[in-house]
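Justification of resources, computational component.

The compute hours requested in this renewal are based largely on the per-chain cost of generating structure records like the one below. Each record pairs the submitted sequence with a full C-alpha cell output. That output is archived, and it is also reused by downstream analysis tasks.
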Amino acid sequence: MASQHFPSNMQQEVTCPICLDILQDPVTIGCGHNFCRGCITQLGETCDNFLQCPLCKRSMRKDAFASNWLLGSLVERIQTMDLSEMRLEEEQLRCPKHRKKLYYFCEEDGKLLCAMCHESNEHKYYNTSTMEEAAQHHQEQIQWHIEILEQKEQLLTHMKAEDEERISVFTAQVEFQKQRIHTEFKNLQQVLEEEKNFLLFGMEWLEEKGAQERECYSADIQAQLISLKDLLDALKAKQQMPSRQLLEDIKDTLQRCEEFQFQFHSTTPVPLDLEKKLSEAESRYDFIIENLRKFREQLQADRMKHHECLFEENNPNMDRS
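The structure output for this chain reads:
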C-alpha cells in the first residue's frame, strides 16, 4: 500500500473509491468518477454488459472508460513528494552525530539519543529512558498540568465574573454619587440665589422707601424755607418803615415770628425704622458672608487634603483589595 502522509484533501482526490488506496493506472468512467483500472475492470467482470457506478449508481457500459493521464501524473508527483517527506522525517529521526536512529531520551538535558550517545560518558550516568517511556511519563506530566491549569482557568473565570460584578457595582455607585453632586449643588446654588435675590429685594425696597422719604423731606424743608423767606421779607420791609407804619400790626408780626419758631421742626431725612431695617439687612448679610467665607476656607482645605489622598503620586501601587 502506498504511503498516506500527504494532505487529506489531496489524498481524497487520488484515492480509489473501491479499494480505498492510491489510484493505480487511473481511469474515468462515463459518469465522470475515477477508479483504478484494475478495480473497475474486476467490478465489470461481475456484470453482463452494464455496470453501476459505485458512487452515483448510474448505469453505463462496463467498457465505457478511458485512461486519465492527467490524474495519473498527479498521483506520481504526490507519491514522489511523499517519499521526499518520509526521507526528511527519517533523516530528522537520526542522531546528527552518529547517524543512528534516535531511541532514547535524556531527562537531564532534554535531548533525544541514539544507542551510541546513550552509552557515551556524557549521558552514561544521566537519567535516560526509551522515547516511548519518556513520552508516556511526560504525557502524565502534561495531563497533570492540564488538570491544574483547567482548575486555574475555572478559578480565574469565577474571579473574573465576581470582579466584573464589583466593577459594575462600583460604576453604578460612581454614577449615583455624580447625580447626587449635581442635584445637591444645584439645590445649594438655588438656595444661595434665592438668598441673594431676597437681600437685593430688601435693598431695593429700602431704596424705594428712602427715595419717598427724601421727596417728603425735600418738600417739607422747601415749604419751611418759603415761609421763612416770606417772614424775613416782611420783617425787613417793616424795619424800613416809618415809626407809625412800623408799629402798625407789630404785635401780629412778632407773634408770627414766635409761632414760626415754635412750629419749626427739623424733618428727619431717613426715618429711624428704615435705618433699623437697613441695619438688620446688613447684619444678615454679614452673617451669611462670614459663614460662607468660613465654609469656603474649610472646603478648600478639605479639597486639597482629599485631592492628595485621591491622586497620590508617591504611591503608584494602590491597594486594589
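The first strand starts at residue 26 and ends at 29. The chain has a mean pLDDT of 82.
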